[in-house]
Amino acid sequence: MANTHTLIYSSTAGSGGTSSFDFTSIPSTYTDLLLKISIRSSSSVGTYDPVKIKINGSATNITVRDIYATGSSVGSEAPGSTDANIISYSSNSANTSNAFGSLEIYISNYASTSYAKSISADGVSETNGAGAILTLTSSLWNSTSAINAVNIGPYLGGSTWAQYSTASLYGIKNS
Amino acid sequence: MAAAQTYELIQTTTLATSLTSTVTLSSISGAYTDLRIIVSNYTSVQANQTLGMRYNSLTSFSYTYLNGNGSSASSSRASGAGAINAGFTAGSSTTIPIMATIDILNYANTTTYKTALIRYACERNGSGEIDAVVGLSQNTAAISSINFTMNADPTSFFGSGTVFSIYGIKAA
């Protein structure tokens, strides 16, 4: 039976953290991409940190729309302008120590050169206190280029993903 | 010993024309533990459609959904419906696709009712919807076929290039 769910890359932040998870040279041999990410931002600004996605090295042509819940409120947002690539939210250093958020991002039909790319993401950050948030996100990369690189970074410049943060990229094949 | 393969393709269908109103994934083997269905590159010919999902040709489903449109969130439910409303497709486009992931756990057992968990991502480059849906049919038969329609309407069509893939996930 063909292997339909294959690890492409995996990365763990070492001592001092990492500025972003940057997956490049992604082969076009799969049907879809799946990222599984465990992260905590070094930022202490606010109660959680937005997570930004870049595709093929750029934040342009990305739009998002989410549903969020914080434990006290629920809503929906579609950030624009420079925040249009916020794919989810993560725990940060203002929260409970050692609390890491989990994020799963599914990128469908990523190697197509005929269609834009639809993306679905589920993110959670539970801290047993302030900073808890869950998001369900719909996103679009409005380009017909094949995706060959994905970058997941914290919102604020200078922030890092804390030590022990992990990100794994899988290829899903339907043949 | 090589690790057992636990995530296997069962079947995939890519629509070659834009005149398809119904897609059925049939003869689903009972050899797996759970099912995952990916509807990708999904476009609609007509505007403002819903994706209807049924299994085993059953005709009565209930579902509950959480919806967001970018400015507000809402939730509602229905029962006695002819299909699970797996998501709402705002607007139409044959070039900007949307996607859905559908998980059906313990689908092959003959004792319990089966619940489908659906995530529906419809971002249309500045407009759109996002849905999380749970659907149920009060039937204990193993699921052997899954059927998708647009709006439960034979005159509504999926766009050319829409892909339906079903994977089996094995716990052993």
Characterization of the model:
The complex is a heterodimer of chains A (175) and B (172). By secondary structure, chain A is mainly β. Chain A is built from no helices and twelve strands. In chain A, strands 1, 2, 3, 4, 5, 6, 7, 8, 9, 10, 11 and 12 form a twelve-stranded mixed beta sheet that branches. Chain A starts with a strand and ends with a strand. With 172 residues, chain B is mainly β. Chain B has one domain (7-169): Sandwich (Jelly Rolls). In chain B, the strands form two sheets. In chain B, strands 1-12-3-8-9-10-5-6 form an eight-stranded antiparallel beta sheet, with no helix packed on it. Chain B is globular and about 45 Å long. The model of chain B has no long low-confidence stretch (mean pLDDT 91).
CATH topology call of chain B: Jelly Rolls
Q: Any idea how many domains of chain B?
A: 1
Rounded to an integer in angstroms, the radius of gyration calculated over CA atoms of chain B is 16 Å
Most extensive interface: pair and counts?
Answer: A-B, 40 and 41 residues
Please describe the biggest sheet of chain A, giving its number of strands, its sense, and whether it closes into a barrel: 12 strands, mixed
Distance between the termini of chain A: 10 Å
Stretches of chain B where pLDDT falls below 50 for ≥5 residues?
A: none
Distance between the termini of chain B: 15 Å
Write the element-wise H/E pattern of chain A from the N-terminal end onward. Answer: EEEEEEEEEEEE
Helix content percent band of chain A:
under 10%
Gyration radius of chain A, rounded:
16 Å
Strands of chain B, total number: 12
State which percent range the strand residues of chain A make up.
over 45%
Structural class label of chain B: mainly beta
Helical residues, percent of chain B: under 10%
Question: What is the makeup of the main sheet of chain B?
Answer: 8 strands, antiparallel
> Which runs of chain A of at least 5 residues are low in confidence (pLDDT < 50)?
none
| Number of helices in the DSSP assignment of chain B | 0
